[in-house]
Request: fold
Amino acid sequence: MTVSETHRAIEAVWRIEAARLIAGLARLVQDVGQAEELAQDALLIALEKWPETGVPPNPGAWLMSTAKHRAIDQLRRKERLARKQQEIGRDLEQRQHPEIEVDTGPDFGDDLLRLVFTACHPVLSTEARVALALRVLCGLTTKEIARAFLVPEPTIAQRIVRAKKTLARKQIPFEAPSGDELAARLPAVLEVVYLIFNEGYTATSGADWLRTELCDDALRLGRILAGLVPGEPEVHGLVALLEIQASRTAARTGPNGEPVLLLEQDRTRWDQLLIRRGLAALQRAEEIDAPPGPYRLQAAIAACHARARTAAETDWARIARIYEQLSEVTPSPVVELNRAVAVSMAFGPEHGLNLVDQLVAEGSLRDYHLLPSVRGDLLVKLDRPAEARAEFERAAELTANTRERELLLERAESCG
Amino acid sequence: MRYMMIVKSTPETENGAMPSPEELKAMGDYNEELVKSGVLLAGEGLHPSSEGFRTEIATGGGRSVVDGPFTEAKELIAGFWLLQVRSREEALEWAKRCPEPVEVRRVFEAEDFEMSEEEAEREAKLREQVREAGGIA
Reply:
C-alpha cells in the first residue's frame, strides 16, 4: 500500500469509528471536547505509524486503546498535580479499563446516544451544534465542514472550539436525557440533522460534491438516531422525510444543472428504494401512539407526492388536510403559503387566492419572493393576466437567485 | 455512493444447507453493525439456484425459460447487501469486517449516465408542457 492509499484507508476507518471512539472516550473523561482531542491525537499517531506498519487488523480497537492510554496518562498527570495521584489513577484504571475495552459492546449505543445529546445540547447555538455534530458524529474534518457550508475554515474551527468550551464551562454532563426530558430535548437534535440535510439539498448548483454528501451524512445520522431511540415517532418522521426527499435527487436538476420543480420532475428518476424506505419509516412513526409532530406531518405530505405515479394523480385534498394539521402544530406563514397552493390544487384557484390574500394582508412574508410568485400563478389560472404580470415582476425583484429571476421575468412576459 | 456487497454460492448454500448457529450469530452481529452505522440500504439472502430460473432470448426474439439449478456454483450469487458509503475505502473497510468473503461492486448512479442531447431536449419539452404551480420545490 502506498502512503496515500494508507491515508485514504485511515480516513475511511476514521469515518466509521470517530463517533464510537469519541463516545467511548467521553464516558472515560466526561468531557466531549477533551474526548474529541484525544481521538484526534490517536488519529495523528495512526497517520504516522500505519504507513510503515500497515493498517492493523482491528483498526477501531487500535485507535481506541491508543487514545485510552493517552487519556489515562492525562488523567494521571492531572491527578498528580492535584497531589492525589496514584491511588486515584489506579482506581480509575481499574474502574474504567474493562468497560472501555468493549468498544462494540452493548454499552456502545448508550455512549453514542449521550454523545448525540451532548453535542446537540440546546445551550449551544444551532450553528455550533451543526459543526460539532459533523465533527464528532460524522468524523468530518474542519476543512470539510467549512467547504460544505461555504464559510472560511477558521470560522468553523472557532465555532467548534467555542462549542467545546461552552460545554465545559457550563458543565454540561455527558449524558442523554431520559423519559419526558428526552422528548423535550429531541427537537434540538432533529433540527441539527435536518439542517445538515438541507444544507446539502438546497445546494442545487452541484459545483461542490461535498454539499450533496451532506445529505448522505444527515440520512446516516437520522438512521443511527432511529436505532438509538426507536420509540420516538418524530425521529422516524424525520428519517421518512429525508429518505423521500433524497429519493428525488436525480430528478431535481435538469441537464444544465437548473432546478426542476417537484411537479415537473420525471418521476421515473425518483429512487424507489429510498421511497420504500421512507414510507416504511413513516409507517413506523404512525404506529407509535402519539399526536403527530411536524416532521411526521411533513413526511406524510412528502409521501403523498411519492405515492402519486404522475403529478396529476397527486391527492391534493389530502395534502391540504395535512397542511392544516401542520399549521396547527407549527403555525408559520410559509406553511400557510404551501397550504394555499395545496388548497388551490384541490379545490380551485379562488380558494387558494383567499388564503394567499390573507397572508398578503398579514404582511410577514412581505419580502418572500414565493408569495407574489404563487399569487401570480393563481391569477393566471383565474385569467387575470395584468395582475399576474405585476406579481411575477415583484417576485423577480425579490429573488436573489439569477436563474429564478429569469424564469419569473419570462412568466411576467408571457402574461402579455 | 452505493456499493453492492455480494456473497457467492458454495456447494452448501446450493444444497440449501442452513448456516450454523455460530455463523448466524456472526452474520447477525455484522448486520446489526451495518444498520446501527446507518450504511445499510438493503440486503437479502437468496434461495438455491435449483429454485430459480433463467430466461434466454430465443430465435425470433421471444423468451425461453431454463430452470435451475445452475452449475457454475462459484459464480452464483447467494446474497447481497446494498451499502451507502462515502468512499471506496469505506466499502472496503466494511467488506473486511464481513464474516464471509465477498465481492464488492459499485452501483451505477444517475449521474453516471450522460443524457443525450435528444433526451435532454425531450425532457426540456416535457417540462415546458407541465410548467404549473410554483412554490413547491
Notes: Confidence is low (pLDDT under 50) at residues 130-137 of chain B.
